[in-house]
Amino acid sequence: MGVLFHIMLNVILPIFVLIGAGIFLHRQYKLDMNTLSKLNSYLLMPAVSFTNVYQSKIKGDTLLEILSFLVIQGLCLMIVSTGLSKMAKFESSLSSTFKNSVVLSNSGNFALPVSQMVFQNNPLGLSIQVGRHGFSKSLNLYIWII
Fold first, then answer.
1. Per-residue pLDDT tens digits for 2-61
2. What is the pLDDT of residues 130-145, one digit of tens each?
3. What is the pLDDT of residue 86?
4. Residue 38, helix vs strand vs coil
5. pLDDT of residue 133
6. Is the dihedral of CA 37, 41, 45, 46 positive or negative?
7. What angle do CA 37, 39, 45 make, to 5 degrees?
8. How many of the other CB atoms lie within 10 Å of CB of 103?
9. First-to-last CA distance in the chain?
10. What is the per-residue pLDDT for 63?
């Protein structure tokens, strides 16, 4: 029961406090969600990712293993999603949407802050999450450019 209380107090409660602060600020000042989303994607999340990678004590071989896994996972997901979309004979637009939904992860905005709180005593776990998030954002940018 103590572990559940610890998680509720130190992981879940801060998230709801931030959500509440966001609701309050939006009602007070009518914030532009498009601008906030862009700031979050292009400024805040890369800064947090860079800071976490810079401050982590992860070894080079461990980082190489993480990045190798992520590259292999991304390639496998691309191959499988392309094959499934061809087997199902999706139209071009549906095929693209299907491939993007399979390959591109959109959990960074929520998963990274949670990982920071959950893995605060386990730097390797946090480093893996930060590496995954950075790779995911890079893959998103690469696919967007193509």
1. 778 887 887 788 888 888 998 898 899 888 888 877 887 778 777 776 777 677 777 778
2. 666 666 666 655 555 5
3. 92
4. helix
5. 64
6. negative
7. 95
8. 21
9. 50
10. 75
- Name, in order, each residue with C-beta under 8 angstroms of 88's C-beta and a sequence gap of 6 or more: none
Indicate whether 101 pLDDT > 70.
yes
**Strands annotated E in the chain:** none
Q: Is 49 helix (H, G, I), strand (E, B) or coil?
A: helix
104 C-beta neighbours (distance < 10 Å), count: 15
CA pseudo-torsion sign 75, 81, 86, 87 = positive
Residue with tokens 């994607």: 41
The amino acid present at 14, given as its one-letter code, is: P
Distance CA 122, CA 139 (A): 26
Identify whether the C-beta of residue 93 lies closer than 8 Å to the C-beta of residue 9. no
d(CA 113, CA 14) in angstroms, rounded, equals 10
CA-nearest of 103, 95, 98 to 72 is 103
How many CB atoms are located within 10 Å of the residue 99 CB? Answer: 19
Which residues make Cβ contacts (< 8 Å) with residue 70, sequence separation at least 6?
Answer: 131, 132, 135
* Alpha-carbon span 2 to 142, nearest angstrom: 44
User: How far apart are alpha carbons 146 and 141 in whole angstroms?
Assistant: 9
